[in-house]
Design a protein that fits this description.
CATH topology of the largest domain: Gyrase A, domain 2
Mean pLDDT: 80
Structural class: alpha+beta
CATH architecture of the largest domain: 2-Layer Sandwich
Number of domains: 2
CATH class of the largest domain: Alpha Beta
Number of helices: 7
Strand content: 5-15%
Order of helices and strands: HHHHHHEEHEE
Low-confidence stretches: none
Distance between the termini: 43 Å
Number of strands: 4
Length: 169
C-alpha cells in the first residue's frame, strides 16, 4: 500500500491547521479528519504525531494509542471483563446491536463515549422523529435517577441521513 503521508502532505497540513484556533468535534471537517486518521496505518500516524501539527498530531497520538492497545491480548480481556460486570452490556450500542426498530436504518458505536448513534431511515417524517427516538429509548430501558440525552450528529444541513447520538445523562 502506498504511503499517504509524505513531506508535502505534512507541510500542507501544518500550513492549513496553523490557522485553526479552536475545533468543533461536531463539525463536518472534524468528522472527516477523524475518518481519515482512522484508516491510516500505524507508521503514517506516527509521522503525523512527530510532525507537531496543530490538533492533528494530538489526534494521531490518540489513534496510535488505540491501535496499539487493540492489538494487545489484554484489550479483548478488558472488554470481556467490562461487558460481563453485572451481566450487562457496556455501552448503549451493545444494548441495541442487532435489534430492529421501525424508522431506524442502523445503529452505530460512537468514536468516543458510551452512547449509540441512531441513523433514521430517509423516509422518516419530521413529525415522527421524536416518536422513533422514544421507541429507541424504551428499548434501551428506563434509567434510575438519570435521563437520556439526544444530540443531532448529522443530516440537518447535508440532506443526508438524519443521525442522532443518544447518551445517558
Amino acid at each position: 500500500m502506498a504511503m499517504l503521508v509524505d513531506k508535502q502532505v505534512i507541510a500542507d497540513l501544518k500550513r492549513e491547521w496553523a490557522k485553526v484556533k479552536k475545533i468543533d468535534p461536531a463539525s463536518d471537517s472534524y468528522q472527516k479528519l477523524i475518518r481519515v486518521l482512522n484508516i491510516l496505518s500505524l507508521a503514517e500516524l506516527k509521522k503525523l504525531e512527530k510532525a507537531d501539527i496543530n490538533f492533528v498530531s494530538s489526534l494521531a497520538r490518540n489513534r496510535i494509542t488505540l491501535k496499539e492497545f487493540r492489538n494487545k491480548p489484554e484489550a479483548q480481556n478488558t472488554r470481556n471483563t467490562l461487558s460481563n460486570l453485572a451481566g450487562k452490556p457496556i455501552t448503549l450500542y451493545d444494548n441495541l446491536k442487532g435489534k430492529k426498530i421501525a424508522g431506524v436504518a442502523a445503529f452505530a458505536r460512537p468514536i468516543t463515549g458510551m452512547g449509540v448513534i441512531v441513523t433514521l431511515r430517509p423516509t422518516a417524517k419530521i413529525n415522527d422523529i421524536g416518536d422513533i427516538l422514544d421507541k429507541v429509548e424504551d428499548t434501551l430501558g428506563k434509567l434510575k435517577n438519570q435521563t437520556y440525552s439526544r444530540k443531532v450528529v448529522s443530516g440537518l444541513d447535508t440532506g443526508g441521513n438524519f443521525r442522532v447520538e443518544i447518551t445517558k445523562g
